[in-house]
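Hello support,

Our group uses your service weekly, and this is the first time we've seen a run hang past the timeout. The protein is Transcriptional regulator. I'm not sure whether the cause is the sequence or the server load. Input pasted verbatim:
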Amino acid sequence: MTKEHVLDLIKAAGKPVGPSDIAKSSGLDKDEIAKAFDALKKDGAIYSPVRCKYAPAEEQS
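Update from on-call engineer: The timeout came from a worker crash unrelated to the input. Re-ran successfully.
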């Protein structure tokens, strides 16, 4: 699993999501998803519009 794959899952959700949301919907390991979220945050690819939930940075206004 790559951070790009996780970003695609975040985009597909259509709403702000957290690592556990992605884990539940995809069946992937929550810890691995959390690591990808951390990397995506550092890269500026996602942002947090609400506490503990993230959306693609391209949706940020």
